[in-house]
Write a structure and sequence with these properties.
alpha/beta
Length: 302
């Protein structure tokens, strides 16, 4: 299937394609590729409640700047599959992202990850340095677990969610989360909430099972001892407004202490979802990251 995907992508100078790429039995990831084939690849990884939909403002800016974007939704996220029996650890998620990039023959990409996707990106960067030439983490620190303690406690009530409102309840909670996480919540409309919850709505039971599995997942190794192995430049972009979901001071200090090349950027007035509130600030950060690294191979090159 991956070979067909590459052939289709090479059939058009500039296009957007939605793909499903199998990475293991019963496991397939939703992938969206946009831009010209010859463009330098930028791989985007959403966080726990994200999807390709969340990057709808950023992707056109990146493709207009000449990049080719590859949005990879991790297992259990967005439109990707939600198998009952799967390893939902952050390490396993990084391995699946690597499998997708191998399938598409992507090498030397700029990796842009949001929130918990940043922890997956750090793991990918040290396990597969050939795939990543630069890492931009948006509000994502070197987290060791997929779910916060508060979210894990909330999941204890997962069996009751359908009884107390199902997807309507989920959408109310997501709306509140998006608002509390924003510097300026004007972007949080009914249409946006629908877009952020579209994947969950297709199979709510499977979504809840996946979240429970993420909460129970055990990492085969800690991330912190391996941060010094990340060879590529890393930029952490955080929102300057007070908001939920920000990166802790201890995590920032760990990155400053261990990474070979690390830069911290703050976007005034923005919250956790910087690419929603100020997508041009993210584009500028990608451009600064690209300027600090060598020229990559294009998508599909050998």
């Amino acid at each position: 299937m991956w070979l067909l995907a590459v052939l289709v992508l090479n059939d058009s100078a500039s296009t957007t394609r939605e793909l499903r790429i199998p990475v293991a039995p019963a496991e397939s990831l939703a992938v969206e590729v946009s831009g010209k084939v010859a463009g330098a690849p930028v791989v985007l990884v959403p966080g726990l409640f994200g999807s390709a939909f969340g990057f709808r403002k950023l992707v056109p800016l990146l493709t207009a700047a000449g990049y080719q974007t590859v949005v990879v939704e991790p297992l259990g996220i967005g439109s990707s599959s939600r198998p009952r029996k799967a390893n939902y650890s952050l390490t396993a998620q990084a391995g699946r992202i690597a499998a997708v990039l191998d399938s598409l023959h992507v090498r030397g990409a700029l990796l842009v990850a949001h929130s918990i996707g940043g922890s997956e990106a750090f793991r990918l960067a040290y396990h597969r340095p050939d795939l990543v030439r630069g890492l931009l983490s948006i509000e994502g620190g070197p987290t060791e677990t997929a779910l916060t303690p508060a979210f894990k406690r909330a999941l204890r009530f997962a069996p009751w969610i359908k009884l107390f409102g199902g997807i309507r309840l989920i959408r109310r909670k997501i709306r509140g989360l998006l608002i509390d996480s924003s510097g300026d919540p004007a972007w949080v409309t009914d249409e946006v909430v629908q877009g952020y919850t579209a994947g969950a709505a297709r199979d709510l039971d499977a979504t809840l099972r996946a979240y429970l599995a993420m909460g129970d997942a055990r990492e085969p190794e800690k991330l912190a001892p391996h941060l010094a192995e990340v060879r590529c430049p890393v930029r952490l972009v955080v929102g300057g407004a007070r908001h939920d979901g920000d990166v802790g001071e201890q995590e920032v200090a760990l990155l400053e202490r261990t990474l070979r090349s690390f830069t911290l950027d703050s976007v005034p007035g923005a919250g956790h979802f910087i690419y929603e509130e100020q997508p041009r600030a993210v584009l500028a950060a990608v451009s600064r990251l690209a300027a600090s690294v060598t020229t990559p191979r294009a998508l599909g090159s050998q």
